[in-house]
Amino acid sequence: MKIAMIGAGYVGLVSGACFSDFGHDVVCIDISEDKIARLKRGEIPIYEPGLETLVETNARAGRLSFTTDLNAAVADADVVFIAVGTPSRRGDGHADLSYVYVAAADIARAVTGFTVIVTKSTVPVGTGDAVERIIADTNPDADCVVVSNPEFLREGAAIDDFKRPDRIVVGLEDDRARPVMEEVYRPLYLNQAPLMFTGRRTAELIKYAANGFLAMKITFINEIADLCEKAGGDVQAVARGIGLDNRIGAKFLNAGPGYGGSCFPKDTLALVKTGQDYEAPLRLIETTVAVNDTRKRAMGRKVIAACGGDVRGKTIGLLGLTFKPETDDMRDAPSIAIVQTLLDAGARVRAYDPEGMEMAKTVLDGVEYGADAYDVARGAECLVLVTEWNQFRSLDLDRVKSLLASPVLVDLRNVYRRAEVEKAGLAYISIGRSDQVPVLDPVQTDAAE
Ligand code: UDX
């Protein structure tokens, strides 16, 4: 199969590299000359474990190449993927589809012979229909079918997610695309990965419903964590206790500082807008968005409370800034709101992140950076674990204690056990794990008045 991948961003690059690894002939296209030049030199513009080797191996084997020449790549292709960005539109939270529409018109002008056009970008329901119209309007002679094939890749684990998917969703309205898509995913298909064919609108909705549900699941356990802190309980045990029920499932029940990243915040917002447009409001998702937004700043206040309620002139050390480990991505990271809350309260913030500091410098104002976790701990009033990078999981707590100005560890990812931290002489504040038994009666009744 000859595949053209439009957009050499996160999704395009990972998908293109993986398709070439399946043996397909893949050309990744991007408008950024600089990005393409770097990729040709083997430089990967994003941090994603395993991607550099995958790109290098397949480029050397001649199966993966990079270009800015969309026309030639599309003319030659059997399948054209659209993997351009769909950021939140400024002002209303809708997905901005302008890049998708430009790509559709460009494809229409360049296409030759029967070609399957696949939307991989996350796009609202009905976008496939719009892409089809643009292609027909731009070039009535184009022999194309438009397919929706959403991605479910997690940053930091994207290659594994691509090669070992829970399912592959293909939404189509024209059966001519079916054997082509089976061929594209042949190695996975042969490995029994469920390849689910459905209508195009349904496929578009599956992507948003999946991300909306996962965001809701995280937000649910975060609220249970708050209740555990007040009522006396351990959220991790609650999560395990409910997650062992197969109807609920154990994954995505880690309480933390709120979800961030390039997908959940943007996709939940877009889903809310779509619900409003179709007069089918998604109140659970609306609430999820609101609760998660509030939570991020609340985490800053939690740190302030851990420092006795006043952080003016005090230095707070932050470990981890990216929205999750194994990425350099700072988009909608909880650290942004946490840093702002601390700076607003008059604190000095020192931070360290293994991969995210370069991007953090473009997003965060007024933060100082340390060389490693211990450098950040030195002289700080409190050390806050924000992102659970592996290197923060086994800190020398005695050393941390000796470096801190005041011995407090706030663990927003529940990486440590209270006993080990307290043994090192540090006060320990985590998420949803209270050992204080509340003074309230278990059931508040009017009779008590
Ligand atoms: C997500 C989806 O998982 C993926 O299928 C989709 O295609 C893109 O969006 P990603 O944003 O890369 O992937 O990361 P993910 O691992 O899902 O984490 C998202 C956020 O939720 C992070 O901020 C993470 O810290 C948080 N999270 C995740 C929790 O707080 N608790 C959890 O249990 C899981």
UniProtKB/TrEMBL annotation:
The active site is at C263 (nucleophile). GO terms for biological process: polysaccharide biosynthetic process; UDP-glucuronate biosynthetic process. Residues 317-418 form the UDP-glucose/GDP-mannose dehydrogenase C-terminal domain. It catalyses: UDP-alpha-D-glucose + 2 NAD(+) + H2O = UDP-alpha-D-glucuronate + 2 NADH + 3 H(+). SMART domains: UDPG_MGDP_dh_C (SM00984). Keywords: NAD, Oxidoreductase. Substrate binds at F152, L153, R154, E155, K207, F252, L253, N254, A255, G256, G260, K324. One of its GO terms (molecular function) is NAD binding. Belongs to the UDP-glucose/GDP-mannose dehydrogenase family. This is UDP-glucose 6-dehydrogenase.
